[in-house]
Amino acid sequence: MKLGVPHNLRLPVAIAVLALLFLGLFLLYPLLNVFSASVLDADGERLTFANYAKILGRPFYRAAIANTLAIGLAATAITTALAVPFAFALARLPVPGKAAILAMAALPLVLPSFVSAYAIVLLLGRSGIVTQWLQSWGLGFGSIYGAGGIILVYTLTLYPYVLLPTIAAFKAVDVSMEEAAQGLGSSPRRTVWTVTLPIVMPAVLAGALLVFIETLENFGVPFVLAEDMPIFAVEAFKLFIGETAPNPASAGVLGVLLILTTALVLLVQRRFLSARRFATNTRQAPPILRIDRPLQVAATIYCWAIVILALVPFFAIVVLSFMEFRGPVLHPNFSLANFGSLFDRSLRPLVNTLVFATLAAACVSLVGVPIGYVVSRWRSGIATLLDVVATLPFAVAGTVLAIGFVVSFNSGPLVLTGGPLILVLAYSVRKVPFAVRSASAIVHQIDASLEEASISLGRSPFQTLMRVVVPLMLGGILSGVVLTWVTVASELSATVVLYSGPWRTMTVVMFQALEGSGAGIATAAASTLIVVTLLPIILLYRLVRRYELSML
Amino acid sequence: MAGIVISGVSRTFGTVRAVDNVSLEVGEGEFFTLLGPSGCGKTTLLRMIAGFTELDGGEIRFGSECIDRLPAHVRDIGMVFQNYAVFPNLTVAGNVAYGLRARKVATAEIERRVEEALALVQLTGYGTRWPHQLSGGQLQRVAIARALVIRPRVLLFDEPLSNLDARLRVSMRTEIRDLQKSLGITAIYVTHDQEEAMSVSDRIALMNAGRLEQVGVPVDIYRHPVSRFAAEFMGTTNLVPARMVGRAGDQFVSLRPEALRLASDAPQGWPVLSGMLAHVELLGPIMRLDVKLSDGTILKAAMLDAPDRSLQTGATISLAYDPARLTVLP
After folding, report:
1. Residues 6 or more apart in contact with residue B57 via CB below 8 angstroms
2. Of B201, B227, B253, which residue is a domain's last?
3. Based on the domain organization, do B221 and B246 belong to the same domain?
4. Could you say which of A132, A342, A387, B31 has the lowest number of CB atoms within 10 Å?
5. What is the average pLDDT across A533-546?
């Protein structure tokens, strides 16, 4: 009563206020600083659009924007074209080994995409193994540097974003709709085109937009593969790191443009998808279709080929990391020398990676789960605001958020630069949307009357949250912790801006090895990262499997 | 234990007056039912008593204590939900003990009272089972035991039987009524099922569009509905223009199907109405007739089956009604 807040709203209000304070300080404030850097003159006093005019006036940066969008669209189109038939095959056709395919298909989502890009360079690059082998036969192929290679890596690493929700959608199609169409005289083939595909279309589009946004924000893949081709996130990074002046106006401009683009895409998605939601209420998954032997063989090869091709680069990196490099040149002898030179200097980066990932995973759950709870249980203006703000990091490239962090916490009352905390906080903010989404999806499945029962039996709303809701969410929370941990461990784009001195992580080690000529160290770091990300997933596979779809 | 006094309670959601200036008094130990169609405000009113919905205005008291500003968890209410709301992560005993643990009751005492409560709902020996091993009816018994064991001041039932099958509904409602009476706890019961309400309640408040339509003992509401809504919602009835039964005015009268008989079977002095037999159905012990009167009004009649009777649709038929069971509606 003291606050004038009705007693049954005190808990959600308290959570919302705390969450908004956290996100206000570590998300909105840094972004505001990026924005103000971009619209202020060199003295930081007058409002000006000169920075925008300067950047947009340079053909180089216009090309960066055009390249990023073109590559993103191409990768999205190809990914979707590959993933939808794949999803249909897994959902409706008799393909052997579905469980294994599904398990392997989810892996590219958690494995670091820049490692895949680096593997492509080692295999197909100028002095790549496959390239040289083909040359010894007198065969050659086009360069994988530039748009082609980037699109290839995006396709191989991002296809699960379309695949997984589309499988779920195909499985949720009410068979009676197909039966109705066929009863009305439609052939099975026509039914797929006129009934089934339109029903799954919203899921496909949602996945495709995720792919598109990922391509816009990705830093590592173009950093490895773009060479001279200007790309948004990479140029923002170079502008910021290259500038010695304290006013990172130009980087801010690129950052703001990047955020605007992704936010626009997200808005379009929300508008479009909320208008077209085809509710189907199924009691059971639709039956597996009976098809000819040749078609079955073709579908099987198709599915397995995509899954395996996507994982080949990671496998290759692990194999290569056990071979001997002299400078950039590879010698096919088994050797532990790469790991020796990686860890000889210090185990510190590995320890940092593990500690940061653990802290960030804990922090993300602490922030994200209560937000998810409030967002799905409470309908009000504040809850909607919280939902929007908590989704915002999704539209913010890691590079841009990191730039905001540096600008905001370099001086003033809260100085974080140069320490480890800034990394943990940046990771936490970046992963909050995922935690919120998965938590709210789980809370959605928990009957609200369970909480009311607990409250009427004498537990306060907070005790009820801790004793009823959290235990019921535990599986989902743990799964979220694992996935956060894994993706944080291989985070690159914010890390390379924010790390300092002793707080290097494995991704930084690999990044630095890429810039130098330490191919051996790079492969060893990459395969260490692969192990670090795969191990928890494999150990907790059953748990993660059950909940990961809700993350999408 | 206490009676409940609800005075001038209102609640608006957006532009909808979900509960509109409702005043009620429920006696100590009374089994009181809020009855009405979906959206009539009965659940909102119940949730206000439970503390899950805020009041815009008015007051709710348990005995002399005003409780409408208390947080829900200190109101000392036993609530039974439509979907059971049994905690899936606790055993049956864990569920029943939940409220006692919240009240920091001693362990030995908890054990004793849980056993006692489970015996009350005929679930002795089920303490170690998990909710997913139980049927819907058993789950609802667990929920009832869980609500009773805390010895609440008031018991609230939110459509507790609507997820059960028809037969179980009938046996469970008697059980709930017997339990409530033997424990003497004031109970408010929400349902949309008129028959259920009549079978369990001491009194019923019939609600419509957020307002009280009629409050009274079940038989009174059934026999003497004060409005068309009350007459039609409490069972089947015929709404006949008053002049068809020889009365002045342009009101309607309510005539229950069972107040009609074939003219040949009726006692002396019952007024007769003639029409064409439009439809006959025999539902085991009961026979239902639809008779079309000269002005087109369909009159529904119900009577016990008689084996020697044979009726042809399309034939002219005469019905007589009990003039004492005619209710004139405003």
Report:
1. B8, B9, B10, B21
2. B227
3. no
4. A132
5. 76
Please state, in angstroms and rounded to a whole number, the distance separating the CA atoms of residues A369 and A70: 36
CA B305/CA A76 separation, integer angstroms: 73
User: pLDDT of A422-477, one tens digit each?
Assistant: 999 999 999 999 889 888 888 888 889 999 999 999 999 999 999 999 999 888 88
Is B77–A455 a contact, with Cβ atoms under 8 angstroms apart?
no
Closest Cα in chain A, distance from residue B77 (Å): 6
Domain co-membership, B15 together with B40: yes
CATH code of the domain in which B242 resides: 2.40.50.100
- Last residue of one domain, picked from the residues B227, B248, B269: B227
Average pLDDT over residues A48-71: 89
Whether B177 and B244 map to the same domain: the answer is: no
Q: How far is CA A534 from the centre of its chain?
A: 16
Cα distances (Å, whole numbers) of residue A168 to A106, A203, A548? 13, 8, 12
Alpha-carbon gap, residue A495 to A398, rounded angstroms: 8
B286 Rama class: left (phi>0) / alpha (psi -120 to 50) / beta: beta
Q: How many residues can be counted in chain A? A: 552
Of B69, B77, B86, the CB nearest to A456: B77
Chain A residue with minimal CA distance to B146?
Answer: A457
Distance CA A321, CA A21 (A): 45
Give yes or no: residues B254 and B168 share one domain.
Answer: no
What ipTM was reported for this prediction? 0.87
One-letter-per-residue 3-state SS of chain B? CCCEEEEEEEEEECCEEEEEEEEEEECCCCEEEEECCCCCCHHHHHHHHHCCCCCCEEEEEECCEECCCCCHHHCCEEEECCCCCCCCCCCHHHHHHHHHHHCCCCHHHHHHHHHHHHHHCCCCCCCCCCHHHCCHHHHHHHHHHHHHCCCCCEEEEECCCCCCCHHHHHHHHHHHHHHHHHHCCEEEEEECCHHHHHHHCCEEEEEECCEEEEEECHHHHHHCCCCHHHHHHCCCCEEEEHHHHCCCCCCEEEECHHHEEEHHHCCCCCCEEEEEEEEEEEECCEEEEEEEECCCCEEEEEEECCCCCCCCCCCEEEEEECHHHEEEEC
Q: What is the mean pLDDT of residues A246-255?
A: 76
Give chain B's domain count: 2
* Placement of tokens 């100028």 in the chain: A126
Domains A1-42+336-552 and A49-321 in one fold: yes
Report yes or no: B14 at the A interface, CB cutoff 8 Å: no
Answer yes or no: do B222 and B240 share one domain: no
Are B102 and A463 an interchain contact pair (Cβ–Cβ within 8 Å)? Answer: yes
Instruction: Evaluate whether A158 touches A215 at the Cβ level (below 8 Å).
Output: yes
Please report, for chain A, the start and end positions of each structural domain, with discontinuous segments joined by +.
1-42+336-552, 49-321
Domain that holds residue B85: 4-227
Nearest chain B residue (CA) to A463: B102
Phi, psi of B306, deg, nearest 5: -125, 125
State which residue of chain B sits closest to A462, comparing Cα positions.
Answer: B73
CA distance A274 to B310: 60
Residue A493 is given by DSSP the state T
This model's pTM is above 0.90: no
Do B73 and B37 fall into the same domain?
A: yes
In this prediction, residue A150 has a pLDDT band, given cuts at 50, 70 and 90, of very high
Assign domain A1-42+336-552 to its CATH architecture.
Orthogonal Bundle (1.10)
What gap in Å lies between CA A147 and CA A221, rounded to an integer?
11
Considering only residues B28 and A136, tell me which one the structure prediction assigns the higher pLDDT.
Answer: B28
B162 touching chain A per CB within 8 A: no
Based on the domain organization, do B67 and B157 belong to the same domain? Answer: yes
CATH number, domain with residue B222? 3.40.50.300
CATH placement of domain A49-321: 1.10.3720.10
Residue A245 backbone phi and psi in degrees, to 5? -65, 150
